[in-house]
Design brief:
Blueprint: H1 3-25, H2 35-44, H3 47-64, H4 68-88, H5 95-110, H6 112-115
Helix pairs in contact: 1-3, 1-5, 3-4, 4-5
Length: 125
């Protein structure tokens, strides 16, 4: 594994651990969002507890090095939600999501052989 993917692995894993843990302990001040964004989070309610727990699990899986592909796979829909939230409700704070996307993309590219089966045509019985 080259240096860039190793650095991406550590930075993505640590970021997920920090932001996931922040969901439970709020040690990073939350930015001010508009009314639509607040309504969005209120609509999610207790689901955010599960999302933050999954972020912690994904961070640990990615940092482990052994289950990186599993962590990347579980984190993909969470990352899509992060990007879409910022595109539609908080465009001014899109940069952290884009940075996470870059780290995620580097790691997916590094492990592309593990994801190749997802793009193959299934054999018929």
């Amino acid at each position: 594994m080259n240096k860039i993917s190793k650095i991406s692995q550590y930075l993505l894993g640590i970021s997920l651990l920090v932001f996931g843990t922040n969901g439970f302990f709020q040690f990073i001040p939350a930015p001010e969002f508009g009314a639509e964004a607040v309504a969005y989070f209120q609509g999610l309610g207790k689901i955010m507890i599960v999302v933050k727990a999954l972020e912690i699990v994904c961070g640990l899986l990615i940092l482990s090095g052994r289950f990186t592909v599993l962590g990347l796979s579980i984190f993909a829909p969470i990352l899509a939600n992060i990007i879409l939230f910022h595109l539609f409700y908080a465009l001014d704070s899109l940069v952290p999501g884009l940075v996470l996307s870059i780290f995620w993309g580097i790691l997916v590219f590094q492990h592309r052989k593990n994801f190749a089966g997802l793009l193959e045509k299934p054999e018929s019985n």
